[in-house]
Amino acid sequence: MAEGSQENSPSAYAAAGVDVAAGERAVDLMKQHVARTRRPEQVSDPSGFAGLFQPDLSRYRTPVLATSTDGVGTKVLLAQAMGRHDTVGIDLVGMVVDDLVVSGAEPLFLTDYIACGSVVPERVAEIVSGIAEGCRQAGCALLGGETAEHPGAMEPEEYDLSAAGTGIVDRDRVLGPHRVRAGDAVIAMSSSGPHSNGYSLVRRILDDLGMDLDTYAPELGGPVGEAMLTPTRIYAPDCLALVDEVEVHAFSHVTGGGLASNLARCLPEDLHARLDRGTWTPGPVFSFLAQRGGISPEDMEATFNMGVGMVALVAAHDADRAVRTLNERGVPAWLAGSVASGAGEVRLEGTHA
């Protein structure tokens, strides 16, 4: 047999560290999870190499497609350390679909990419179960994906995640700074924790403390690792419902960089926002990190969402209705501040309740 043919034979590939059979078993195990996310617009692809989707464009006058891509970051390292792989997929979906909805777009479908040192079918299926659950919460289809085995580049137990999502919105309904007006109300929506941002600092704090992830922390009401793996809250369906109920001008997805820097992105240059910290109390995970890690308030606010994962800027007359709508949907929300004339910046005033 020629040397080239030998190199490409299944046995040679397996010897190089790639288990094709494990990959096929992983696909079989994940099918049940992917099926839960199916939407009626999906079209079967006979080739099996792509995902097809036929959106109902009759609902739109001038449809615009929106796209976003993201990952989970170093939060996956905590999941790997704990052997808990069914939640980071929810984080992955949240990072993508909640960026899409900022423009007012409805998330339609998502494709994922899982890179790992070694394909362990049960672990891959566990990861995909979380991605599927995130898609279910977001109302979008998990249309396809790729699982890649990278022996030599990654250790056998290592993996990383990324995803890309596509949404749709009418061009004349695109939200953003161009709609924001002086007097708009700033409606804050509660986060479930740090979501998927700041985990390099989280890990450094835990390492410096020499704290095992299974350590029970009274202030967290459970093991440290479990608290840090709390999945990202997915806001997309609630934001879309809010758009249908009130006059929404803009959303801000609070991710890396914290509340002030992300909210500033949805303000025009001639307006600023004032928020009163006294209108909310960040969850206990934030005080745990600040106190145990000796992190200054300034660094905390520049790194973490501090209890606010999404912000809506709505017409002042709709403020109460916006809060009521979100609360009725199970999203803790409150009036946190307002927009006024002045340079495009965000001012956080007062102290947390």
Automatic annotation (TrEMBL):
Subcellular localization, as worded in the UniProt entry: Cytoplasm
Main location: cytoplasm
Keywords associated with the record: ATP-binding, Cytoplasm, Ligase, Nucleotide-binding, Purine biosynthesis
Keyword Ligase (UniProt): yes
Domain called PurM-like C-terminal: residue spans: 181-344
Catalytic function, reaction form: 2-formamido-N(1)-(5-O-phospho-beta-D-ribosyl)acetamidine + ATP = 5-amino-1-(5-phospho-beta-D-ribosyl)imidazole + ADP + phosphate + H(+)
InterPro entries (UniProt xref): PurM-like_C_dom, PurM-like_C_sf, PurM-like_N, PurM-like_N_sf, PurM_cligase
EC number: 6.3.3.1
Annotated metabolic or biological route of this protein: Purine metabolism; IMP biosynthesis via de novo pathway; 5-amino-1-(5-phospho-D-ribosyl)imidazole from N(2)-formyl-N(1)-(5-phospho-D-ribosyl)glycinamide: step 2/2
One record GO biological process: 'de novo' IMP biosynthetic process
Single GO MF descriptor: ATP binding
Catalytic EC class: ligase
A cellular component annotation (GO) from this entry: cytosol
Domain PurM-like N-terminal, chain residue ranges per copy: 65-169
Family the UniProt entry places it in: Belongs to the AIR synthase family.
Entries under HAMAP family matching the protein: AIRS
PANTHER family on file: TRIFUNCTIONAL PURINE BIOSYNTHETIC PROTEIN ADENOSINE-3, TRIFUNCTIONAL PURINE BIOSYNTHETIC PROTEIN ADENOSINE-3-RELATED
Protein name in UniProt: Phosphoribosylformylglycinamidine cyclo-ligase
Source organism per UniProt: Haloactinospora alba
